[in-house]
Amino acid sequence: MLQLTLCILKPDIVRSAHLFNVREIIALILKRQFIFVKSKHLQLKCERAGEFYREHQVDLFHYMSCGPISCHIFGRENAIKERRPMRWVQRKYTTENTIRGQHGVTDTRNCSHGSGI
């Protein structure tokens, strides 16, 4: 059964001088047999980010509204289960061979947020 999953690339990676990082992250996801569904680049207002991150750290919504973000929906059979080995969710930025491990800087500026849809 096809499932969708969301990948949000955070302001630190999107506004980076190294635009290839965004392309590299998307290529990593596609390499894992995910299909591209849709992308949108936007700037969250602080209030909107606060709604989205209500159950997360209080300071995170300020960070998520400090610059542009890049949102991507990917699909795959068992997408939610299959994305976990990529560890773009619930993993520290220091974990090797992961999106956050390759592109993250700190636990907050870890380049990505992911969830199931």
Automatic annotation (TrEMBL):
Gene3D superfamilies (UniProt xref): Nucleoside diphosphate kinase-like domain
Pfam family, one: NDK
InterPro entries: NDK-like_dom, NDK-like_dom_sf, NDPk6
A single GO molecular function term of this UniProt record: nucleoside diphosphate kinase activity
Domain of life: Eukaryota
Residues in coiled coil: none
Domain Nucleoside diphosphate kinase-like, first and last residues per copy: 2-116
Cofactor: Mg(2+)
Keyword annotations of the record: ATP-binding, Kinase, Magnesium, Metal-binding, Nucleotide-binding, Transferase
Family stated for the protein in its record: Belongs to the NDK family.
Protein name: Nucleoside diphosphate kinase-like domain-containing protein
